[in-house]
Protein 1
Amino acid sequence: MDEGPGAVSPPTLAVWKFSSCDGCQLTLLHCEDELLQVAGRVRIAEFLEATSASVEGPYDVSLVEGSVTTPHEADRIREIRAQSRVLVAIGACATAGGIQALRNFADVAEFTRLVYATPDYISTLATSTPISAHVKVDLELRGCPIDRDQLLEAISALLAHRRPRLRAHSVCIECKRRGTPCLLVGGGVPCLGPVTAAGCGALCPSYGRGCFGCFGPQETPNPEPLIEAVGWGSDEAVRALRTFNAAAPAFRHASEAAAARGRIGGRR
Amino acid sequence: MTDDRVIAREDLDALFDALHRCGYTVVGPTVRDSTIRLAEIAGTRDLPAGVTDEQEAGRYRLAQREDAALFGFNLGPDSLKRWQLPPDRTVWRARRKPDGELTDFSTDARSGPAGMPDRIAYIGARACELHARAILERVLLGGNHPDPELRERADALIVIAVQCGEAGPTCFCASMGAGPKVTSGYDILLTELLDADHHVFIAATGSVRGEELLAEVPTRRAGSEELAAARATPARAAEQIQRKLDADWVKELLYAHLEHPEWESVAQRCLTCGNCTMVCPTCFCTSVEDVTDLTGEQVERRQQWDSCFAVDHSYMHGGGPARQSARSRYRQWMTHKLASWDDQFGTSGCVGCGRCITWCPVGIDITEEAQAIGAVTHGPARATPAKED
């Protein structure tokens, strides 16, 4: 990365997978037109979704997909960190634990007993945790999956040694910029946009669907009044908040508070 | 200027035709996604005929009217701001040569995401919109270095205003001296008159351009009854206004109560989502950032609508964000709008359009907040439920 444009040796880029569905890695492949430009500016050292070729570290940039759910992964992320100059966590799994963080609210031993014929062979952790719970992360790209334009922006910024344009304000600001009328105020459609971080360009609302919150909590989320305004009961609020970013602290606290309300008052 | 004329409902399209012949894109209210939006419209067939809007704090719905009024609604979320200050635009672009020097520098960017036309005629502007236009124009163009592109947009704008005959529950323009009666700031002013067998528009002109345009539309002289009905129209709207804000005192009262407990109370409810600032017709904050592409050869300076409810908005080098709490951000927004705007630009920043009340997902009401802080010293107390259904 320290070599400027035109330097002889291009920076190396590695893409790593932890507990995840590969969707965020596929976002890089979906860059299509820009992919050749990316390939021209960096040397892809590790990217199993694209190539079986592998180059030894250290790496200038590592994109890390997935959460840490096994003891092996907890060790492996430390090795990757040690080999990476810049480490970018990509996607809801890597930044918040992902859907699999639903285990954090339950008993994993019980799951393994139910799912596997011989649970003794399973070595897994009680929780699914984001990369930042284990090593220092330099940049996070949110979303399930990540946004293509944000990924290209992050790579462009890293190549140009500038700060990437990544904002964590609400999705509402993106809806208004693109001219999407508010689904919640205008149609009573449940929408997590006001408590969710921007970055997707307000994609779902532009198709008439309320925001699912896949980018996780915005920078100063305040879910309680939103739950009240939408009219969600306890169960509905818990379901809305426990999807892609269930373990993100702000969503976790709000869903636990909603669950507690449900236990006290019954189904609202 | 000239005597008021009467345009029959069926002749109103001639006004669109005249504007199109002059090379204008007509922007006006039209129903899209169950909302009255401002968008490019071709003629009266695109106007929200027979449609009205029902507004409350945090709630907006369309409903059918019993008549076929073309302007029988109040306001949607859009304002002229979208054209005065496009939500996302390239300020300049350039190319970097291998030696690092910038070349092919261009400010002729005009490349908003919607490909916004630069010569527009805005039909349907209400009194609050005209006041908001002037306030925003003062902010954008009143300084020593006005943006030439925004200057051109402002100069080219033609305004066909419409007199309000009904007020919505979130309107408080009368308190802010910004309505409901249109008194200036238009090229043509229309007042819609409608009864069982009579659908006409009383047209007044406010500029030479307006006179020239109206000359291309079939009209007749207005009768005295029609003129009386036109005069009664904004008076009827004024009587329907429910919300109040004491504009004469609010500045001093807010300044005197910067530590009022209400700021904490509103912060408990505020989502810091920024919707109020986005729909406000005068909120002008933008972020300006330089963007490079993957090759590092193309560079653009981009300007986007931003909000004082975003943490980064108050980021200062070395100190981080100055306004971290929701309390400080809501207070900043409201005191700027109603108090320090006056110190900065010589007017209030609020026109009482009520959009921030309607489009707040949790229905926070700036007039109620002012009341809670003690700014409203008279006027009947309201007892409107924050949310029905």
Protein 2
Amino acid sequence: MSWFTRMFTSTIGQKLIVALTGLFLSTFLVVHMVGNLQLFKDDQGMSFNLYSVFMTSNPLIKTVSYILYLSILFHAFKGLHLAYKNLKARPVGYAVVNGKANSHWTSRSMGVLGTIILVFIVVHMNDFWAEYKFGHIPYVQYEENLQTGEIKSKPYIDEAGNPKTIAKKVEETIISKDGIDYKLTITKDLYAEVAEAFNNPLLVLLYVIAMFAVGFHLFHGFKSGFQTLGLNHPRYNPAIQFLSTWVFAVIIPAGFAAMPLYFLLIK
Amino acid sequence: MSGNMNLTLKVWRQKNKDDRGKFETYPVQHISPDMSFLEMFDVLNERLINEGKDPVAFDHDCREGICGMCSMFINGRPHGPLQGVTTCQLHMRSFRNGDTIVVEPWRATAFPVIKDLAVDRSAFDRVISAGGFISVNTGNAQDANSIPVPKDDADAAFAAATCIGCGACVAACKNASAMLFVSAKVSQFALLPQGQAERQERVLSMVAQMDAEGFGSCTNTGACEAECPKGISLSNIARMNRDYIGAQLSTQKA
Amino acid sequence: MTTSPKLDARIPEGTLEQKWTKYRSTVPLVNPANKRNLEIIIVGSGLAGASAAAALAELGYKVKVFCFQDSARRAHSIAAQGGINAAKNYQNDGDSTYRLFYDTIKGGDYRAREANVYRLAEVSANIIDQCVAQGVPFAREYGGMLDNRSFGGTQVKRTFYAAGQTGQQLLLGAYSALQRQVGLGQVDMLTRHEMLDIVNVDGKCRGIIARDLVSGKLERHFGHAVLLCSGGYGNVFFLSTNAMGSNVTAAWKAHKKGAFFGNPCFTQIHPTCIPVSGDHQSKLTLMSESLRNDGRIWVPKRKEDADAIRAGKLNPNDLKEEDRDYYLERRYPAFGNLVPRDVASRAAKERCDAGFGVNQTGEAVYLDFAFNMKYKYGKKEATKKGIQNPTEEQLTELGKAVVKEQYGNLFDMYQQITGVNPYENPMMIYPAVHYTMGGLWVDYNLMTSVPGLYALGEANFSDHGANRLGASALMQGLADGYFVIPYTIGAYLSNEIRTRAIDTNHEAFEAAEKSVRERLEKLKNINGTKTVDYFHKRLGKIMWNQCGMARNAEGLKQAIADIQSLRAEFWRDVRVPGGVNEFNPELEKAGRVADFLELGELMCHDALNRNESCGGHFREEFQTEEGEALRDDENFGYVAAWEMTGDANWELHREDLKYENIKIAQRSYK
């Protein structure tokens, strides 16, 4: 066995995979959430749609996104695999277990929480990511008044009302009308797709539940990742604990959950 | 014999490692709150013998909380409801008259049941044999004060070294992981100048043996630390992770 | 008085300082190729056993170690709290090899061999070096150097320690060294195995019969030499600070097969143990002697106060200073609370017998930290922190923190067992059986009177004479294992290099196994009405009352008769449940108690024979007017080595103790 195999087949090595992928996914969540805050912007979704274009076309981000997909797969597979192996480490269970006396329930439920999140990710990616990449999302045309900043949008369709497409992901032109410059932007209207999807209360419910799962998963998972990497020090532990609780267990899931609720309840 | 507590015990009985095993219920009367948990079992066994029944087998020796031999899983927790206490140091005043107490053996693939509440923990010895030592033959040593050890390091090494090898960490862990036990020994030597020569080799060998014994992996629940009768810290596990990863990546070997 | 011709101590010639150095440089050696073919059996895995196993395996011998526990690390050495002595003189307070030697001989009340004790003092420094190299985390000072504390019976600070868990740390060090050899294939470690007999072939010890405690199967093991490192026999008293499993069986089987038993009546009663709380009690717990550094021992001066305290009408904290009797400080002003263990124990018994005991049973005295907490540590801390005119409460608080750091684990243990908070109330303590200085008689090489059979550590009759000083047991166990036996065994094994491994089908093995099997079957088949513990407790009572802290001829004679009849009753009426060929802790216990029932009688014979008081052996007939022990060096300056000549029949052999370097004097700690 090479040292590499030996390392990554050891329990610590396998945990290392889970920790590294998990922490990477956590950083992705920050980016993803900050980016998606543009859903709240009152511009008929233009910045959100442009952001979607950027995220799917920038070569660096594309590379990162493939690492991300792999990370999700590795994290989920390794996590479940370890959970299975851990079950085998105690084939005959206890009749009475008082787990709450010695540990937080989230730490004992990572497999279940993770599975909920995995189901959610499949639904989520099917709804938006796959739709955006392979589906038929109609295009939208924005007309931005460069003087006032006012934005108007309309579907990008021909005279007969059929949706038109463009060859590139986004097409930007500057035109002048009545001495005022306008920027015309044509791109896929993922925003409308999102708005429509989040009109479905059941889907919104799934999202909210999933965000609770994310919160609880990260409440333990984020700091646990540091412990697995060996980063445990009385000086830095309070900061890790703070990030774990407030950023990853509260702010991020709350921000994400606010998006479907916003479309369902306010928009 | 002197006491006013009456209790119901539900005790795991298993004739040998191949037996399926089951719970038996035993009422016990006139228990004194000053008795230790094991002395309460002495009373039960005395009665079982007098009734011509098979007494409950359990491991115990020093009965002062240091040998690490006693090992009962009491009401869902290793060594019972108190923190920082072994079964032998748990006294009946920690229970209430009329309580039902469920007593099980440590459960882990790596700790097969021998009989009733006694389990085989030789896996721990094999982990130590794999690297839990400093290779210094008798007679090689230089003067003890020739290597100053910072007090903080010595104290931290001592704190790790107080592990009694009882296996409560494994018993408490939902994954039956032995990381706290192994990391305590790894840490003791990693913190001392004497342990540096074999530091990498030690952690690699001990972790390999730990895995081979069939212990689960660590998911950092912290149950081990909370249940450890000697309060061994989770920071030892972090140190071992660090040392293990570092050793794998930087060892001189191919 | 002359030494019996059957006892050749083989003490080397030369001056005291040169005996060991010269001897170990001239003792015959075994060449490395031959060592590989020589097998050594070690019974017991405590400090002596584990260190001997590691050291001998490092030399290349083939070693087999047996212990009855589930791991070598459980051996009861682990419970030693206070520390280990070594003549390092790191404190620059006048310590030296000679002073450690002198203190040990004096502490042992002049009943130990000079040459052995000097050797012990010589190698003591090497032990500390070895243990530190192994990674034993001894307490250190801020500069990184090793710290020392003082202990009873000495006026220098020479005790190395690791909080209150020194024995644990030293044992784990030796255990690590042992497990390393297991991993290297040099040691075959057999846990959950109990030695049930030795096998002699042509007058030499050639192996053992052991029982696999899990399967119940009997096994035969050959060895060119057998080392018994099986600890002491304090459990003959039922209640002691020993572990529940500690037993005399290995040593006793050897005794029955020809090994003489030395000074069996020398028992150490430790002064600071938690008092007995009731009939249910299964063992006693020691509070480290180091507590006497800071705790002051007292009882009320007036009987009526003692009565009021016992009745719960008076809180000891409320008793005025002038109404307290700090009896150790009063009787022994030079050593005060730090007198040796035997003296402290007897003084406590004297006060309690006189009616001044402070718990419900009347068998407890106070160990009080309040004074030192406040005035020794509190004041120091206040000065350190620059607090001017601190209040009494402040001093107590400040001192409490220091006491907590030094003795925290012991205080916690006390509270756990008694349910009383020792920071608020004075601790209650009472003497309890702790250590046995007696054991198998050995020569300078640690060989018993059976060639090829050795005894190390507490199992031998030892270097402690009639009383062991605190922190010396760990020293002796490791000295024997690491630094003595690896040399001295060569004297025997160098003549055994032509001895091939003996087939365990040899008739001697056959016969030994048969008798072991018959005895087990016999125990099982009595099928009487009483449990093993019932007999053990009764034996313990007899021993404690008649052969405990104070003994007299009449009581000892009575005890011998009582033990004989108890033994007969045991073999008639004991009930051992379960089978022979299975995991059966009751059967193990029965065998051990059967041996205790024989040993107890020998202890009484020995105590009866020794018409003097010395160290842990106090004969009421032999005391000064002030109640101090009255030694008789003229008639009893010898080691009593008992040979078993038949069932409960012993012949006494004397080994005369010669003091060529120390002037024998009445021990005084005043």
Protein 3
Amino acid sequence: MSQLTTAHVGDVAARQLSAGSGEKLVFLHGASGLPQWNSFFAALAQHYEVLVPEHPGFGATAAPRSMRNIADMAMYYLDYLESFGQERVHLVGHSLGGWIAAEAACRNLNNVKSLTLMAPAGIRIKGMPIGDNFIWSVEETVRNLVVDQKLADAMLSREPTEEEADLLIANRYMATRLGWEPRWLNLALESWLHRIKTPTHIIWGDSDRLFPAAYGERWRALITGSKLTIVERCGHLPHVENPDATAHDIVSFLQSSALNGAVK
Amino acid sequence: MKFACFTLMPYRPLDMAERNKHRSAWVLLPNSLYDPKKGADEYDSYINQLVYAEKLGFDIIAVNEHHQTAYGMMPAPNLIASALIQRTTTCKVAVLGRALPLVNNPMTIAEEFAMLDTLSRGRLIAGFVRGIGTEYHAMGINPAFSHERYLEAHDMIVQAWTRPGPFEFEGEHYNNRYVNLWPRPYQTPHPPIWVPSQGSSETIAWAAAPERKYPFLVTFAAQDLVVRYLNMYRDQAKKFGYEAGGEQLGWAAPIYVAETEERARAEAKAGAESLFNDYLYNPWEMLLPPGYMSISSMKATVKMRKALGSRPRTHTIDSLIDSGTVIAGTPKTVREKIEKVRDQTGVDNLVAMLQFGVMSDELALRNMELFATEVMPHLR
């Protein structure tokens, strides 16, 4: 099981889930907010000290008014990572969190030992439109995010409590702030991804209906030496839909000799 | 009381069977369903109606702005206003309004309104709105910054109209090294600013503030809400230490007048039901994108919606008349319904929508004539 603690960064007091011991692995969550602690996180926590901070503005973590766009979020996480001193962490980000991780890594890699990007937002392939999770209904969103419709049924059958519903609204508001326009995109990002020289692993569901898997190939091409893993029969949420296989893929990469040889 | 004749300019030739294959008549409704020749005919009809309204004695003729929708064919209402100015001589021309946050430089709105005010020799009423939620899908503007952009654009426009230029405008969303309007507005200090709104308490308090005292226009609401929102404005004014005059209050509603109650109901039915069920209806995600309302209003709305349940697209002419959302009946009935709201609120501006939904020109013109001859004079 995980612990719920608070991470203090500047004026922000962020909720944070954590478990395990070893090298630090920081997971930056996607637009739907602080994730459920499932077997994916438990598997990672067998090897690492896993930290899952809630982004400012999401859920119950208040954001200062100055937190307005993805660049602000990237700078915030550089502050967060610096709080570990000289320690270098494995940075893992999913979707919006992957975008933040990539933006932060372009700026400064001092505290980043490796980068794992799961279906990150942030770039565009012209003529390859992404899905519109802002216009989809709740049901469409859930059905489009996972391949396994029985899983979608299960997710939809659970009515959120009043408290959860309030947190979901906060998530959606902050996600809109960061991702509405241009939609899940920083046009400048592509030109700076070459700055990422740390070992990088890109993971994509083969049937992602929000960000098509072709984006995975583009990310791989943009980050020199990166590895792309396509998860089969999987949508936009590999850590939810294929938790064990995805955790295994991540750990295998982090423990590979290529990575450990590459680290200076 | 002052009377405005208002139309949304809905695209009436819409194939409703096709429309019903889509989630909304906004943004995602394919524009292959739009026929440019029929669109041109629609413009002729609606502009003729508004020009005729001046002859019938209306004080104001009014248009507004919506994007990517069959609900209203005026993405650029100032173009229609310009045409109306050329064909009228005395009535006020109201743009209710321009959606300020949707532009990336509000100077263009300041300039266009100044031009219309000059072209009309001071007949312009300038409405400032945020647009409905769908507008943010249509125009790509981030709804999370809608409120901030509205307030900042307002400041920029009013300053452009009133401060001697050139000066620099320094904002968060809008920045202009040189603000120096040519032409300036015709009216001094500037055209009247009206604030049409669906009744958010933040907007009402902002409009009522003593440094603004902008007329607040409540749009499309059940009668109890109309009364509540207009009195909310009056209460706000009292809190600010003054008594709001009736000229600061407005009410926009679909109205239909006929010789008998039955006839009014029968003739208004298709127009009213299509307006609310087919043209206006939007799913939640389109109508209220995140940030369009404050987070606390959104939470309250979600809870209310859960409590009430949601029965989309089930309005009937009877339910619309019963709730007072649509005013319909004999001249006497319509007069009494309007008088009742006036007595309860002191409202002095009535924005009458006399063509709505699929209603034909023939019915709309008869409605306008009956309203102008049998209702208006009694309420002046």
